[in-house]
Amino acid sequence: MRRIIERKIRYDSTLAEYTCEVVKLTKKYAVLTYEMAETVMVGTTEADMKIPAGSRTYAYYWTDRPYNIYIWRARSGEFLGAYFNIVKNTRITDQVVSFEDLIVDLLVRPDGCSFMLDKEELPEPLGNFENGCVHRTLDHLAESYDRLLPPILSETRIMGSEESFNKKLPFTRYRAEKSSGDLTIVMYHGWGSSADVFEEKAGILSSLGYQVILPELIYHDRRANIGDHFNPQSAQRYFWKTIFRSIDEAPDLLRLLKCPPNRVVLMGSSMGGFIASGIFSSMKGLAGLIVVNGSGSFSLSESIFREKDGRNELTEGERVEFSRYNPVESPILNDAPQLLMHGDSDSIVSIKGEEDYVKITREKADNACLTFKTFPGIDHQFTEPMFHEMVYWLKNNVG
């Protein structure tokens, strides 16, 4: 999960900065999270709220609201309390979420009781402070927090349950911002990259009504990350292990997400395209496949890699292992739509692998719903026109 800075600008202009993890980040709305390093007492003696070390904070920010919301949950997932922070000038960038703190806060206990905090620190009466806007915001929150909190509590409860099983199969979820038929797009990243590379695209897709899942891959992200991915020995040792392991994990991932396969589109770029192709050819009933600069002909692509590197050909034992995962050798024929895109000048993953997959797929099924687009002069890149083509294809080919 990508890290970001929360910057609190106190009323006396001093700063407090905290490192958080990004749950969701758009230009106008953000959700961050972090684990409490030590036990803290919150609010007044009357409020009597204790947040133990190891609890998790979920922080919500809006650029068009005069408050932020903090939710505390114990390791068990139990709701410990909520905190409305009165603010102004909230700004959200890729590196920092900042806001100007206006001293007074509203604390809400699990039993629904609320308490105003820090009124005694105001430099003038509440009704006059900041021309009365803080008073008006507090009045609004006092009347509406029982309506504002339930959807956020529901969302953080889900986030907490995801975190517990994310230790095995970590991922980032972007929930659809509007309905688009409950379609989920699972996006697999490339070799030596990370799930974060798709954050911007995932945000756009979620705004269009798609739920997006960004899985973290073995030997990458937070999962036994080998670090030196572009060392030739590391790439040769772990590239296919990453692909085969990710294909094996896919059924468990979909079960954990509770996504029916017929509402899931697999998408991958570069190595992620190999993974998506392998999953698509091993599972029946998926909604679609999108591959950018990948390959569905594993043995051929590996032979091209080896020839380029001056390595020996695949052994018979290696060919047997490849055949277990190789899409062109799979007996499963998916009639779901496929969009394959490749730069015709790709110097990393030869277009020959995808061309072979297209040829064999069409030989197996004359009516295969497969679109293969090449992009002249494009090397190993996921370009903006490719992304636009993907969005257009989704709207017109997957219901």
UniProtKB/TrEMBL annotation:
<dbReference type="InterPro" id="IPR035930">
    <property type="entry name" value="FomD-like_sf"/>
</dbReference>
<dbReference type="InterPro" id="IPR007295">
    <property type="entry name" value="DUF402"/>
</dbReference>
<dbReference type="Pfam" id="PF04167">
    <property type="entry name" value="DUF402"/>
</dbReference>
<dbReference type="Pfam" id="PF00326">
    <property type="entry name" value="Peptidase_S9"/>
</dbReference>
<dbReference type="InterPro" id="IPR029058">
    <property type="entry name" value="AB_hydrolase_fold"/>
</dbReference>
<dbReference type="GO" id="GO:0008236">
    <property type="term" value="F:serine-type peptidase activity"/>
</dbReference>
<protein>
    <submittedName>
        <fullName>DUF402 domain-containing protein</fullName>
    </submittedName>
</protein>
<feature type="domain" description="DUF402">
    <location>
        <begin position="48"/>
        <end position="124"/>
    </location>
</feature>
<dbReference type="GO" id="GO:0006508">
    <property type="term" value="P:proteolysis"/>
</dbReference>
<dbReference type="InterPro" id="IPR001375">
    <property type="entry name" value="Peptidase_S9_cat"/>
</dbReference>
<feature type="domain" description="Peptidase S9 prolyl oligopeptidase catalytic">
    <location>
        <begin position="261"/>
        <end position="386"/>
    </location>
</feature>
